[in-house]
Amino acid sequence: xxxGGSRRxxxxxxxxxxxxxxxxxxxxxxxxxxGAPAPAAGQQAPAKTAARLAAEKKAALAERRAAxxxxxxxxxxxxxxxxxxxxxxxxxxxxxxxxxxxxxxxLPPVFTTVPTKEKVVFLTIDDGAEKxxxxxxxxxxxxxxxxxxxxxxVVSDDYGYFAKMQKSQPRxxxxxxxxxxxxxxxxxxxxxxxxxxxxxxDVIEKKYGKRPELxxxxxxxxxxxxxxxxxxxxxxxxxxxxxxxxxxxMEWREWDRDLHPGDIVLTHFRxxxxxxxxxxDMIRRVMNVITSxxxxxxxxxxxx
Length: 304
Ligand SMILES: [Zn+2]
Description:
alpha/beta; TIM Barrel; two-stranded parallel sheet; 9 helices; binds zinc ion; globular
């Protein structure tokens, strides 16, 4: 700060002290005896308003953090999940990962990691067989975003579960496309692939009111026809995954067997008869991995 600047700041401080000293004295407390001085009546200095807003924001954040710590304890997480960084003002430009290209041009990008430098990863849950109400409650209380990629053959016996999920968080849980019948798409003709993908676009739009922008092919297998069909019915991007979470272990795509900024984490709606634990068991484990490595979970739709 310059000399003139510090003198001006001192002058302002003295003025504030003079304005507030009478109020402070009438309340019987010595000046500076804890807390910010009460603003003088009718005083609406912009700096003060900004300061008050900042303080309120800080208090809300602290409250959110405290609530999350309580929820983490309640749900048996070893560590309290970290607060996600603010989403980017503009979404990053996403291109197809090297080695994942098809010959077609102008097709939706296929990727496993979102371009970002922030220590943020994205949680995606596939298929939809297991419909555990505890999962919805746990994620809401922990305030952790996630996205679901639904396949109609396992969802259609209870569309209501995913309607509840969709509305279970303040900003919603996005429901995306994972085909009607979970087939190995490269083995199907263009017309049949189109029915699998565009048919599921229609189901989600009809049942949940919003046509998905994201599509994930079953097993991560696709060819050029898959991407052409997906594009034809409104799919913007094809997120695959960089790692996969199970209740008892992780599987990694990269040689370093680690998380990276922007990694997409895959897991499934499965129950104890399918793998070694419940949905909350799986979340407990993957969240401990994510948090212990210093990562937060972000909202995929803020980036893609
Ligand atoms: Zn699947």
